[in-house]
Amino acid sequence: MATLSSVRISFAKSLNLMRCVVFGSQKVRLCHNQNGGQDGDKATSGNNNQSENTSDEKDETTYDYTSDEGSDEGLDDESISERILTAALQFVPEYGWTAQAIVEGAKIEGFSGMAEGMFPREGGDLVLHFINMCNLDLGDYLADNSRTQEEIRKTIGQNDFIKNAVEVRLKMIIPYIDSWPQAMSLMAYPSNAVDAFQSVANMTDDIWYHSNDTSTDISWYTKRTSLAAIYGVTELYMVQDKSQEFEDTWMFLDRRFQDIRNTSSMKQCCDKAGEDIANLACSTLTLVRNITGFNKWNR
Amino acid sequence: MAISRSVIFQIFHRPSAISCRCLCTSSKRRLSRADPLIDKILRVDHAGEVGANRIYEGQMAVLGSSKSAPVIKEMWEQEKEHVKKFDELLPKYRVRPTALLPFWNVAGYVLGAGSALLGEKAAMACTVAVEEVIGEHYDNQLRELLEDPEHLDKHEELLDVITKFRDDELEHLETGLEHDAMQAPFYSTMKQVIQLGCRTAIWLAEKI
To answer: A139 at the B interface (CB within 8 A)?
Structure first.
C-alpha cells in the first residue's frame, strides 16, 4: 500500500516536472521573441511611454496564454487580431500605416509575420483599429464627465462640452500626426470608407448623447452631421498646423463653433422673418378684400 | 397583467429563442447602444405616433368646426401624450429617430386633411383603418418582446408603455366605428389602400 502511494506521488511529481518543462519552454520562446522586438523598438524609435504600456499589457497576456486555467482565453481570432494591431501601433511612426507595421506587431506578439494575412485591408485595418480604440477611449472619458447629471449641466454649456470633447479626441492623434495624412487617405479608399463613416457616426453620436441631447426630430441628423463636418475640417487643419502645441488648431476650432452660433441665430431671424411675411400677406389679402367689398359675406 | 402573460409564454413557447442573446456577453469594451430589437421597436413606434398626430391635426384643420370635432380632439390629445412619451424614451435608450420623419409629417397631414375633405364619415374610416394596423403592430411587438423571458425586467417599461398605448389605439378604433365609419363612401377600398400605406410606412420606418 505504502509503495503504491509512493509510486503515485513520484508519478505526479514527474508529471509536474514535464508540465514545467513544456510550458516553461513555451514561455521562454515567447519572452525571447518579445525581448527581440523590444530591443528593436528601443534601437529604432525608442519613443513614448505608450509602447511601454502595451508591452506591460503583453506580459500579462502571455502569462495568461501559458497558465493552465483559461488557456483558451484570448485565443479567438478577434482578440488575436486586436492584440496584433495594438502592438503594431508602436511601429507606425517608423513604417507608417502599412502592412510592414502589422508584420512587426505580429512578431512582437509572438506570432509569425505571416499573420499579416489576417488583415486583407492592411494599413486600412490598422487605422480603423486605432480610430475605434480612440472612440472607445473618448466614450469612456465622456461617460465619466457626462452632462446627464443635473449639477454638471448647470456648470458646463452644451457648446463648451462638445468643443472640449472634439479637442480631447483630436489630441489622441497627436502621437501619430506625422503619418496621419496617410491614414486619412487610407480612410478615403472605397473599401474602408464605409467603416470610417460608421466610426465617425459613432463618435459624433457619443458626443451628442453625453452632452444631454434629447432631440427626436430631423435635427438629430443635422446635429451629428455638422459635428462630423467640424471634426473633419479641424482634423485637416491640424495635419498642416506647425504651431506650438497646435494652438492654431484650437483657435480654428473656436472659430468654427462661433460660426455655428452665428448660423443658428441667423436661422432664428429667418424663421421670424418668414412668420412676419406670412402675417403681412394675410392682412394684405384681408385689406384688399375689404376695399373691394368681397368680404361682405364673411361678416 | 404583463407578468402573468410572460409566465404563460414561458410554459408554452419556443425555448430555443430564449438563450441566444445571452451567449454573446463578453468582457471587452463595447459601444453602449440599444439592442437591435429595442432600437427597431422604439424607432417605428415614435414614427407611427408622430404620423398619427399629424393625421389628427390634418383632420382638425378641416373638421375643426363640425360636430365630430370634440371626438377627434379627444383622440388627438391622447396621441400627443403618446408622442411625448416616445420623445422621452428615444434619448433614454439611445435610439435614433427615423430619417423619413419630414416625409411622415407631410404624408400624415395630407392623409388626415384628405380624408376629412371627403366628409366626417370618411375621416372616421381613415381613423379605423390606421388604428387597426397600429393595434396589430403593437401586438406583434409585444409578442417579440415576450419572446425572450430572460430580459423581461429589462423590457418591463417598454411592455407597460406599449400595452397601454395599444389599448388606447383600439379604443380609437371603437370610437371610429361608433361614429359611422362603415358608412363612408368606398369604405372597404379606402381602408385597404390606407392600410397598405401604413404597412409600407411601418416597414420603412423599421429600416431607415
So the answer is: yes
